[in-house]
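Entry 14. Ran structure prediction on the chain below.
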Amino acid sequence: MNLGPLVNSSAMDFCPYISADGLSLFFISGRSGGYGGFYGDIWITTRPTISDPWGTPVNLGPMVNSSASEGGPALSPDGTTFYFSSERSGGFGSFDIWQVSINPIIDFNGNGIVNIKDLLRLIQSWGQYDPVVDIVPPFGDGVVDVLDLELLMSYWEQPIDDPTLLAHWSLDEAEGTIAYDSAGVNDAIVVGGTEWQFSGGQINGALQLDGVDGYAVTDQVLNPADGPFSVFAWVNGGTPGQVILSQLNGANWLGLDPDLGCLMTELMPPAVGRFTPQPLKSESAITDGQWHRIGFVWDGSNRALYVDDTLVAEDAILQQVHFGPA
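Output, structure tokens:
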């Protein structure tokens, strides 16, 4: 039996995958409303019970789909991890296999609880495309709307653990030389001019550095050349030219420019054609004595810098165009 015109379209619709409970059907489609790629995007249609008809398909959004082609959707038996293939950059060949958590990140500011700060963050992007707060369906639908608000409020005042963290140093220790990693096994060693400030941090603790020889060091958590990643930190103080996060014998991931103390990164993507990448700098000075949440995001094609969850600098890798003979 054909699933009918609500699910099918005049474009190619193929590669269906149904969830274990029979309530979610994933498939590939080249229909309009997608993000690109020769074969199309991954879409989902759902139904309340297995006796009900399938609903209107929804694109899984930009957190899964890209301007390249996606395919091969599959869901883990426990429903928490989504697997798919993609031709996007950051892989090892033509189509690579990728995975993404199906649990939306509700704690937008990373303070461990859903509260008024998260609500204000969502309202700030109301009606806009913002993948940070576009959480319904699980990977977003391209616009922040009432569906996202309803899901946020269902977690109101609840503590939240981020399942996507590779490492997390809360810096809430009161003594000792270890900064423990609550998300993994990458405990950091505290060195030099440092002092624990358990009650003086933005979120239950901070590590005060003297700006001369104080730092915390850990084993390498990830290789920035392996694919998309993000890193965020709460900071207060500092002076122009100081480094916040650095890779041993490598680039400064986050730091302050030597002139005005504006957030910058020295991480640079590979060169494309004649395009030579440069350090990415923002115009946001963060040496004002206030707490700021800063971040760097690499999505496989673009770099972005954030201050207090606001995009302050970004770039795009220029694609080289080859022209053949007329």
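Helices lie at 116-124, 146-153. Will compare against last week's run tomorrow.
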